[in-house]
Amino acid sequence: MFKKFALVAVSALALAGCNDQAGSSGASRDVISAVGSSTVYPFATVVGERFASATGMKTPKIESTGTGGGMERFCAGVGAAHPDIANASRRMKKSEFDKCVANGVKDIVEIQVGIDGIAVGESIDGPKFALTPQDLYKALAAEVEGKPNTAKTWQDVNPALPAVAISVYGPPSTSGTYDAFKELILLKGCEADPKMKAMKDADKDAFEKNCTTLRGAPYYVEQGENDNLMIGKLAKNPNSVGIFGYSYLEENLSKVRGITLGGVAPEYDAIASGKYPGARPLFIYVKKAHIGVIPGIKEYVTEFLKGAADGGYLKEKGLIVSPADVTAKANAAANGMTTLDGAELK
């Protein structure tokens, strides 16, 4: 009898401990908390509204902090004081995963919710730029071929471009859009230069540093995490160029237009097929320890994948549907709450 009582007591304590871990010393939350990417933010908020309407639960609290800032908060610990979900416009980094684990966030579920494009755009009153990744590298890199960048106009970069001062509004370093812009566009543009390709073969770290260290104002000006403010900046400065998520371009075609990169426009089909060089995956990361403690997390994830599916309501908001195999993997991860082991991250 004593043994049975002791076993029950131990089980109760273990359950209480689990709830305390996700409830921050006994305190709890009845609303989902998600932080991260400004690109994922508009999709996450629409999903939150649909989730609340369908379930009768509270609308999740979604914060646009940038992917890097969101990961910082997500990985800080387990409990009600910490977010349940991190939205990301790039994949989680190995260093972020390791920080999560070090802080007790050991079970993380990765779910790709769709595809986005890093749109390069201008005002509808702009000079109708047609750029290449190499043009952007030569305009924005602090050093070109190991020498300080002295280009002041787009024509200095490429004689075929207008003699307009280089002025680019872009995301801050905490943004996943910033990371993806460097990886998908600047590095490709840099590698197109034979001298830089030789540097890559000889010293990859030096190559990446040289290619992705950006000039400051007035050439590259960080605009924070609110891409709608950038749209307004372009309207007021028609000779400037902006870098932002495709969904913001799609929603503001009366104010801005996409700039072709290598002859390919930032359009739905081009991004979905991978023809557009700025195509990138979008993710949400779920803290498994919070499931069953903070109410509604699984239902919210299910609603997100419903909206992100082929024919789902998020397509109208500019989300590009993932290929069938990626969608199947995302659904499997969501249904089984399969966790990352970190080995596949970089």
Secondary structure topology:
Elements: H1 2-23, E1 33-36, H2 41-55, E2 61-64, H3 67-74, E3 85-88, H4 94-102, E4 108-123, E5 130-131, H5 133-140, E6 143-144, E7 147-148, H6 154-157, E8 168-170, H7 176-191, H8 194-202, H9 204-212, E9 220-222, H10 227-236, E10 241-245, H11 246-251, E11 256-258, E12 260-261, H12 268-273, E13 279-287, H13 297-308, H14 324-336
Parallel strand pairs: 1-2, 1-3, 5-12, 8-9, 8-10
Antiparallel strand pairs: 3-13, 4-10, 4-11, 4-13, 6-7
Helix pairs in contact: 2-13, 5-7, 8-9, 13-14
**What's the CATH H-level homologous superfamily of the largest domain?**
Periplasmic binding protein-like II
Radius of gyration: 22 Å
Write down the secondary-structure element order: HEHEHEHEEHEEHEHHHEHEHEEHEHH
**Terminal-residue CA separation:** 53 Å
Low-confidence stretches: 1-21
Remind me, CATH topology of the largest domain? Answer: D-Maltodextrin-Binding Protein, domain 2
User: From the coordinates shown, what is the CATH architecture of the largest domain?
Assistant: 3-Layer(aba) Sandwich
Number of strands: 13
* CATH class division of the largest domain: Alpha Beta
- Which secondary-structure class do the elements indicate? alpha/beta
Oligomeric state, counting identical vs distinct chains = single chain
Largest sheet composition: 9 strands, mixed
Counting DSSP H or I runs of 4 or more residues, the number of helices is: 14
How many distinct folded domains?
A: 2
Specify the overall morphology. globular
How big a fraction of the residues is strand? 15-25%
Tell me, rounded to a whole number, the average pLDDT: 90
**Fraction in helix:** 40-55%
